[in-house]
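Hey, resending since the last one bounced:
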Amino acid sequence: MEYTTLTMFRLVVMKVIVTVLFLLISLFTRAHDSLVLVKSIPIEARLFTTDLIGNCYVIKENNFLIKYNSSGDSVAQFNEVKKGKVTQIDATNPLRILLYYADFNQVIILDNMLSKKNVLKLNTIGIFNAPCIANSMDGNIWVYDQATNNLFKLDNQLAFLSTINLRNFLTESIDPIYMVEQERNLLLVDSLQGIYKFDLYGFYNTTYHFKTKAVQYFNGYLVYQQNPFLFS
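The structure tokens again:
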């Protein structure tokens, strides 16, 4: 098991201070990088994400979810042992946390105290191969279906609100591993092809050919990792 350190940095972008938490085994920065260490929390973890108010959400190896506040204190916990492995966590809305279990095609919706509010079973609507999902700021959910190459927006009762076939925009085949909606943009990450940017309606905008596994979007800037650096 790898022993990692959860490290909080302030990333200064155009005089706007953005709090970023990044999980790395080691981090090396160049002299001109504007990264300032704020707090370091030793922890063993497999996944993590943050929200806009400074909370951090950590998935441990046993699928145990722990929420830390901006001071680094543990404030809530959640565990669902019957659902298999958590493959994605989305906390872009701190009042509505999404946990995705790709092996079971299930999304669990939690509130801000990590209490379970709903379970969405994607296979009941014919989606059996969805590598990633994302919170939508209108209270709905984005789902990418690998089998059909469709980008779906679903409501909380799994009704289809929109369907975008990416073959209409992209000539290459994609294999997404991560998706997030931030600041009216939807970002779809393919570890080999790069970062695909869509608008809030799911229509293709552009591609950034940066190889990464995750991305965030702050004040018009992409923030992504390519070992061992954090770029913006």
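The chain has no helices and 22 strands.

Sorry for the duplicate.
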